[in-house]
Amino acid sequence: MQDQKYVNKNYLAYVHSFAPPTKHFHNCLRAFIVGGLICCVGQFLRIEFETVFHLSGDVLAGSVSMVLIFLGCLLTGLGVYDRIGKAAGAGSIVPITGFANSVASPALEFKAEGMITGLAAKMFTVAGPIIVYGVLSGTAVGIIYYLLGL
């Protein structure tokens, strides 16, 4: 057992000597900047929709969300969102545009397999569990609020 730990430590040290160093601060800064820029676009859309279309409340929130989802899908289709994702990492995944990208990317990748087995089936391979979890947790919270009388 002792020899195994010694071999593992030597192997890990050997592998680590070839691995490039990770720039954690730099990666976090890029993710913060890109995620913040996406949120700034959303805030700009919100202000414009309030001013130009006089929207408010849920209609305003839904409209801004739909435009951001559309932009995420459009940029994915044009191949731009993948380049943003490589540069920004989690900064491009966390906002709602990242969710749109996770639905659109598999659909584009497997469209050659046909409408049902390719496009429709593969579209939810990544996003499917997220949707299921969101629906189930939303239902659970709704039931709890109903039982508490809130």
List the helices and strands and how they pair.
Layout: H1 2-18, H2 24-53, H3 57-77, H4 80-88, H5 90-93, H6 96-109, H7 115-148
Give the proportion of residues in helices. Answer: over 70%
Q: Overall mean pLDDT score?
A: 84
- The tally of helices reads 7
The domain count comes to: 1
How does this structure look, described?
It contains seven helices and no strands. The chain is mainly alpha-helical. It has one domain (25-148). Helix 2 (24-53) packs across helix 3 (57-77), helix 3 packs parallel to helix 6 and helix 6 packs antiparallel against helix 7. The radius of gyration is 22 Å and the shape is extended.
Condensed summary:
This protein has one domain. 86% of the residues lie in helices and 0% in strands.
List keywords for this structure.
single chain; 150 residues; 7 helices
